[in-house]
Amino acid sequence: MLEAHADPALSHARDVILASHGEASKRPVTTSFFHPATFTISHVVRDPGSNACAIIDSVLDFDPASGRTMNASARALIDYVNTESLEVQWLLETHAHADHLSAAPLLQAELGGALAIGREIIRVQEVFGKIFNAGTEFQRDGSQFDQLFQDGDRFKVGGLEATVLHVPGHTPACLAYIIGDAVFPGDTLFMPDYGTARCDFPGGDARQLYRSIQRLMHLPDEARMFMCHDYKAAGRDEYVWETTVGAERTGNIHVHEGVSEDAFVTMRNERDATLSMPKLILPSVQVNMRGGKLPPPEDNGVQYLKIPVNVL
Asked: What is the number of structural domains in the chain?
């Protein structure tokens, strides 16, 4: 098992959690919004001592049959922030999602806040820029975002201490955000009864994912963990998205204590080989690699999303 003292970023994340747990003024208030069409959970994370907040992993509604975007889910976030008189300081993306479109540009236009993602988004942009033949006008330097976080970076949400862990494996750019005693791991982990993220997208790697998860498992057991997705495991009646590090460490069906790296890699690769591509991967990635913006209009004034044939 990884030793925290040998990993400065992990050590600091542990310190943030331990300093926050049990102190109401340092524990974020998290309000979550479930998006049934994509099984995504967006989180509004509030500093209890001020009106400052962050929004994590927002969703833009999209109908693939008609190609229409809709704003109902984003509106729910906007209405909540305005009703509670909150100040959005951050729009945080855990990674470039393959299953839903980000609503970050709409939220930023109405609520403000700095849009942030992991620095390794540039690797995602390079790979998918080629897949979508995006052209030279598409910048592959992360400039579509206001902040590119690296492992161990620190920031604040109001008075709340926050830090970043780079947790690649599902994608090269995946981040976990630690805000007070709350951990937001993106797609790296699901609820204990559902397991872990797939690793078969371009740039994914099951061995990397295992090692990233071991870092998360070394956070304090009592840390609250808020998922980005829940697909309701067989035998469970309700969708849920909050657990603890301790519950994941002891009970995750794919990667609980005692599961070796090689066993996990074998399981993950075999399982991934049976999975279909997410139905929104093609529209999602080409939008999300642009920070949630649609591709620029063509000479007829219409914006288009491409479908590369026989590539993925």
From this structure: 1
User: For residue range 126-168, what is the model confidence (pLDDT) as tens digits?
Assistant: 999 999 999 888 999 999 999 999 999 999 999 999 999 999 9
What is the rounded (10 degree) CA torsion for 17, 19, 21, 25? -120
Bridge partners (DSSP) of residue 87 are: 52
Range of the domain at 8: 4-288
> What whole-number distance in Å separates Cα of residue 226 and Cα of residue 244?
8
pLDDT value for 5:
60
Q: Is the pTM of this model over 0.70?
A: yes
Residue with the two structure tokens 């922030």: 81
CATH number of the domain bearing residue 32: 3.60.15.10
Domain-embedded: residue 32: yes
Contact between 58 and 103 under an 8 Å Cβ cutoff? The reply is yes
Q: How far apart are the C-alpha atoms of 142 and 114, rounded to whole Å? A: 14
In contact, 210 and 261? CB cutoff 8 Å: yes
Helices (H), 132-280: 206-217, 245-251, 261-272
